[in-house]
Design brief:
InterPro entries: Dipep/tripep_permease (IPR005279), MFS_trans_sf (IPR036259), MFS_Transporters (IPR050171), POT_fam (IPR000109). The chain is mainly α and about 525 residues long. Helices cover about 75% and strands about 0% of the residues. The strands form two sheets. A two-stranded antiparallel sheet has the order 1-2. Helix 1 packs antiparallel against helix 2 (about 45-60), helix 2 packs antiparallel against helix 15 (about 440-460) and helix 3 crosses helix 15 (about 440-460).
Amino acid sequence: MNQTKGHPKGLYLLFVTEMWERFSYYGMRALFMLYMVQALLFDKEMASQVYGSYTGLVYLTPLIGGYIADRYWGNRRSIVVGALTMAAGQFMLFLSACYFHQVELAKWLMFIGLGLLILGNGFFKPNISTMVGRLYTADDKRKDSAFTIFYMGVNVGSTLAPLICGLVGNTGHPEDFKWGFLAACIGMVLGAAVFQIFKNKYICDPDGNPVGTVPSKADCNTQKASQTGKESNKRTIWMAVGTVLLTILFSVNWNGNGGIFAGADWIGSLIYATTIVMPIIIITDKSLSRTEQARIGVIYIIAFFVIFFWAAYEQAGASLTFFADEQTDRHIGGWEMPAAYFQSFNPIMIVTLAPIFAAIWSFLGKRGIEPSSPRKQAIGLLLLSLGYLFIAFGVKDVQPGVKVSMIWLTGLYLIHTMGELCLAPIGLSLVYKLSPVRFSSLLMGVWYLSTSAANKFAGVLSGYYPEGGVTKTFLGYHVENLFDFFMLFVFMSGTAAIILFVLSGKLQKMMKGVE
């Protein structure tokens, strides 16, 4: 394939499929916290715990889906199964909202729906991201641009979701939440249908061969060979270590001494323990060469820093939602914009800026001055820190209950959007380029595992949002007001950015000419 031509049509099929999946996810997310508080009458703390556990588990199950795809089903089948399972989950949320007056029944239906969404996402998420890279040759320079375009598809769905699902579901009447969940269900069904109809025609490699099909027996035998004898025993040992670690994390938090692992209930403990143990199991596989181990090591190091990015960034669905609802003046003329609509700001900015960033990387790449992937990640973290610094000064000395201009929250989202474009799509591309083919989906699952830990951690950090004049302390840092709260994220993400930038040269050497 001539690399000077446009992107393959398969990229745009994956774009549309992911767009509908993100429409489903973000449509539900825009209503979920409001549904729990306003319809099921959960308090904010309980709603935040459920939200954090759900979003954490959503990014944990890709490990399972990636493994099954690599060993048994292939990417295509996994994507279809995942999409239909998520559609069933959204339908269960629709039923829950239909019976919200019967709180116990509604709760059970909601938790069943969340379980299906978590399971379905595990099959869907790592496999569709992996397929993007397989549309190109190993040395194709368009991959970063392709993942940026794909990521724009993510945000087209994210843009439409709060507007459409919010329009029909966030009316101020609890009985209308069901229509928002139903809209999310319909979006997921559309995504599955589009992919199923066109996948055989467009999802092909540059030579026209189908990609993402059921793994060959040779590939399966290669993986099985790495799981016999001593390797099998070693994995068993590591699984036992993980179980012990899970128990320790839970016990530490049960005694109230969780520290950075605060909030690790059984779900949180499972997420944190898996985040520590699973990467070790993969990188110690005897079938890996030294070069492959070094490249996987780069994935792990960057994934660690990504945890700090998403833990701060995902406040959009938690503490920043409280800020939008309680301390942001949302009046535009005589109309007061719903707080949920702020969740469309970031994806709208992504859709607007993604082509610009794709062009920037291409422009710099042609002149040999494009930053390395690790440095792009560091830039993303720095921009995240600057976004919180911006809003911190906007709320400095503001009293609780006093509303500030929308410019502060809008400015934060703009700066965070630029940081996200430096980090998220580039990270997906990096994982694909560095992963051995036989572990590509599984390592994509590890990448999302870092997001799982980040989302759970985000829920913990959201708990430090100031309320009622109570002083809260995180690792010795006192949070008394909004300025203190936002500065916590400035310090956290800024420190991570500096350290990653210092390490970027070493990481580039470990990658050994992949870029």
